[in-house]
């Protein structure tokens, strides 16, 4: 109906109405009858032409096709008597009463067009707009009061959700009737109201009345909220959509139309959601016994459910409010309990998706600092437990690498800052600190095992990995090296392993060795430059050996001799007090090389170290002859069997004069390992002083060249103590030198200042204990490098 009226009352967008319109003479008859039109036949019969003629007389220039301005000064109507106006007013009032009475079966006394025309007469001709406006106010108030009473009475025969449907129907009926009234009383809305700026238009007047008499009524508000609460509880308890959800959707639409959505609905939904989930949290934790991990999953599921419902039913602004209320009800006051109890099972499960859920929930509650704290504590404990596990030291580094890789993956995939899309900086710092503190749980051993793990990798090589992948693997191991304070321990063991790889030619790639040394020297410790000297020694030794061989006659056995001359200061080998007795022919070949070397380098002394020497022997077994690659100790023992078929342990010991422990390990590798080139009586895995050994002529192996591994000596407590003593001795020298350098530069310092600067000076090698620093300072005072101030015993002065 409204659309039809709009078309009737709107001017056309384009029309020739003004140019085709002829001047009219209005007869003084009744306003209800059409005026008679008498056409003018003179030249200026057209009003536009007449106007232009007048303008020419006045000297104005008028464009033929210029703009035409239409100005309406007032509505002018014909003269009516007072009775006609009163009749029109009475008809409009009666129609308003019928229209605004819900369920009325009374017919209108006139058509909609008649109502429209009566309104025009009352407002424009009769100037009764104020009377009609007041009548409309009265009818709207009456109608709204009736609607309110109807809604209150409806509670007697329907439940809360059905009542919401009744309310929605009332709202829909009222809004429809208001639209009709606006259309019928268009003259009142567009003429009288516009002239009186203090008046509300019909729409605002009707909605204000509805709000005052219905929506502001406490009972109605309580009934609305009761229905909404019952609907929410039903869906939350049953976990599915209520068949009457559409009632609430329509309710939201009408409340928005009446501008009371925030006050009546949104605020209540937030409060009710908070209360509901606070109660549910208590029940789940204390009655159902939910663990923190399970409760966190429950929270994420509940938040997702509430969000999905809010997106469908509520306004957009309510979605975030409902999410916040849900999280507050479930999580508020429980973040510490959740973080402490959930982080461990989540980390153990190795599921970054579940960690991401935890991060999201804690971030929404502004509790990331709590989650970060527990994450740090857990990581630190795991690292410390791995390092302190002496029963599984052989897999310590693999465990640390695996755990570190997972933690870094969690940073990249779970702990993401939503703004920067980068790993959360606080969690990154926490991970670094946790590993660093975890490594403090045990001194020295982690650094030693990191060096040994790198040794295995450098021996094994990249195999099926690309250069980039292998380099990344090495970097991950060095990443652990950053966390240890005992960098001097790592350097000691790495140099030992490097020297063995180079001398025994066990390194997979010299290029990777040099790249690793460069990386260690530039990024970690400048003293790794010692490795460069090792490579220089090997290069010079090869050149010297090549020159020596060129001087030998062709075809001699000495061409097979390979000697490496090493500077003791660059290689981590101590001088051996006792070594094996070599066969005479071996000793003569070594003597010839010594003579050649001294002819080139006078004043230098060569000390032979046979412990890492190797030899290649040809062994004739019954089936076939094979080449055996053995250590020099193994070769010396095997060569004894060229003279005797069987030898006892004591005979071999007397012939070689080898260290007993070394001899037993050598015999064990030859007679008790997988490749038994010797037989032993009695048979067993250990070597005793009463054992007798035989050459195993029946030895077989599918390969023509057979490598027989040596049995590495396990580190005894005495050797471990000796190594630690050596490291401690080096540390004392570092500390003494650092203290003297500092005092020489500063001349005078308090003990606290000296302690702080000393730790800073040596921290790239190790982190000293405060008690050790105090001992070294006292020692330097005794040696008269320092003295105490006479007035302040806590102040030290450098003695030049």
Automatic annotation (TrEMBL):
One of its GO terms (molecular function) is ubiquitin protein ligase binding. SMART domains: CULLIN, Cullin_Nedd8. It holds the Pfam family Cullin. PANTHER family: CULLIN. InterPro entries: Cullin, Cullin-like_AB, Cullin_homology, Cullin_homology_sf, Cullin_N, Cullin_neddylation_domain, Cullin_repeat-like_dom_sf, WH-like_DNA-bd_sf. One of its GO terms (biological process) is ubiquitin-dependent protein catabolic process. The keyword Ubl conjugation applies. Belongs to the cullin family. It comes from Pisolithus tinctorius Marx 270. Residues 52-63 have a biased composition (Basic and acidic residues). This is Cullin family profile domain-containing protein. Residues 28-63 are annotated as: Disordered. Residues 445-671 form the Cullin family profile domain. Keywords: Isopeptide bond, Ubl conjugation.
């Amino acid at each position: 109906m409204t659309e039809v009226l709009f078309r009737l009352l709107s001017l056309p967008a384009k029309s020739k109405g003004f140019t085709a319109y002829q001047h009219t003479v209005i007869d003084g008859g009744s306003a209800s009858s059409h005026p008679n039109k008498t056409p003018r036949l003179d030249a200026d019969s057209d009003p536009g032409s007449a106007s232009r003629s007048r303008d020419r007389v006045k000297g104005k220039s008028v464009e033929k096709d210029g703009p035409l301005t239409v100005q309406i000064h007032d509505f002018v109507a014909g003269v009516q008597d007072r009775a006609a106006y009163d009749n029109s007013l009475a008809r409009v009032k009666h129609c308003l009463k019928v229209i605004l009475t819900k369920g009325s079966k009374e017919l209108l006394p006139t058509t909609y067009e008649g109502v429209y025309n009566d309104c025009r007469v009352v407002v424009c001709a009769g100037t009764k707009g104020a009377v009609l406006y007041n009548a409309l106010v009265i009818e709207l108030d009456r109608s709204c009061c009736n609607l309110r009473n109807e809604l209150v009475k409806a509670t007697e025969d329907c439940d809360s959700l059905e009542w919401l449907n009744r309310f929605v129907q009332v709202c829909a009926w009222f809004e429809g009737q208001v639209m009709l009234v606006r259309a019928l009383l268009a003259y009142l809305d567009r003429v009288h109201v516009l002239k009186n700026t203090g008046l509300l238009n019909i729409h605002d007047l009707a909605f204000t009345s509805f709000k005052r008499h219905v929506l502001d009524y406490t009972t109605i508000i309580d009934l609305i909220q009761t229905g909404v609460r019952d609907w929410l509880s039903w869906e939350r308890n049953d976990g599915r959509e209520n068949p009457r959800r559409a009632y609430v959707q329509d309710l939201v639409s009408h409340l928005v139309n009446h501008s009371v959505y925030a006050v009546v609905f949104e605020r209540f939904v937030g409060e009710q959601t908070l209360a509901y989930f606070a109660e549910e949290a208590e029940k789940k934790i204390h009655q159902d016994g939910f663990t923190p991990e399970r409760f966190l999953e429950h929270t994420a599921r509940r938040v997702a459910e509430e969000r999905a419902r809010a997106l469908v039913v509520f306004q957009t602004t309510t979605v975030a409010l409902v999410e916040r209320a849900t999280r507050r009800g479930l999580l508020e006051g429980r973040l510490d309990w959740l973080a402490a109890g959930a982080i461990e099972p989540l980390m153990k499960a190795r599921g970054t998706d579940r960690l991401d859920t935890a991060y999201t929930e804690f971030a929404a509650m502004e509790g990331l600092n709590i989650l970060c704290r527990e994450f740090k504590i857990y990581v630190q404990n795991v690292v410390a437990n791995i390092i302190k596990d002496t029963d599984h030291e052989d897999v310590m580094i693999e465990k640390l690498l695996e755990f570190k890789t997972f933690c870094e993956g969690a940073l990249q995939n779970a702990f993401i800052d939503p703004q920067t899309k980068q790993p959360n900086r606080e969690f990154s710092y926490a991970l670094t600190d946790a590993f660093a503190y975890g490594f403090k749980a045990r001194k020295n051993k982690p650094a030693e095992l990191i060096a040994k793990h790198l040794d295995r990798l450098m021996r094994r090589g990249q195999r099926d990995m690309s250069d980039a992948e292998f380099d990344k693997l090495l970097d991950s191991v060095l990443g652990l090296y950053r966390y240890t304070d005992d960098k001097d321990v790592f350097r000691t063991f790495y140099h030992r392993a490097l020297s063995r790889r180079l001398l025994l030619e066990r390194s997979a790639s010299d290029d990777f060795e040099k790249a690793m040394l460069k990386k260690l020297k530039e990024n970690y410790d400048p003293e790794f430059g010692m490795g460069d000297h090792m490579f220089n020694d090997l290069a010079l030794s090869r050149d010297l050996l090549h020159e020596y061989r060129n001087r030998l006659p062709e075809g001699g056995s000495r061409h097979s001799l390979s000697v490496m001359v090493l500077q003791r200061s660059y290689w981590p080998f101590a001088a051996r007090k006792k070594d094996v007795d070599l066969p005479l022919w071996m000793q003569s070949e070594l003597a010839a090389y010594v003579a050649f070397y001294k002819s080139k380098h006078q004043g230098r002394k060569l000390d032979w170290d046979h412990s890492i020497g190797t030899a290649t022997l040809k062994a004739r077994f019954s089936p076939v002859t094979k080449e055996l690659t053995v250590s020099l100790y193994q070769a010396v023992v095997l060569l004894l069997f060229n003279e005797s078929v069987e030898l006892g342990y004591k005979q071999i010991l007397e012939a070689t004069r080898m260290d007993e422990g070394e001899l037993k390990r050598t015999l064990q590798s030859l007679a008790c390992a997988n490749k038994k080139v010797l037989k032993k009586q009695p048979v067993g895995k250990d070597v005793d002083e009463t054992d007798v050994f035989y050459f195993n002529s029946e030895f077989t192996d599918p390969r023509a060249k057979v490598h027989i591994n040596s049995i590495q000596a396990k580190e005894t407590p005495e050797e471990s103590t000796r190594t630690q003593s050596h490291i401690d001795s080096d540390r004392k020298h570092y500390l003494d030198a650092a203290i003297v350098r500092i005092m020489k530069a500063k001349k005078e310092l308090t003990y606290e200042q000296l302690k702080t600067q000393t730790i800073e000076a040596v921290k790239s090698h190790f982190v000293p204990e405060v008690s050790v620093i105090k001992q070294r300072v006292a020692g330097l005072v005794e040696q008269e490098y320092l003295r105490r101030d006479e007035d302040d015993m806590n102040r030290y002065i450098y003695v030049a």
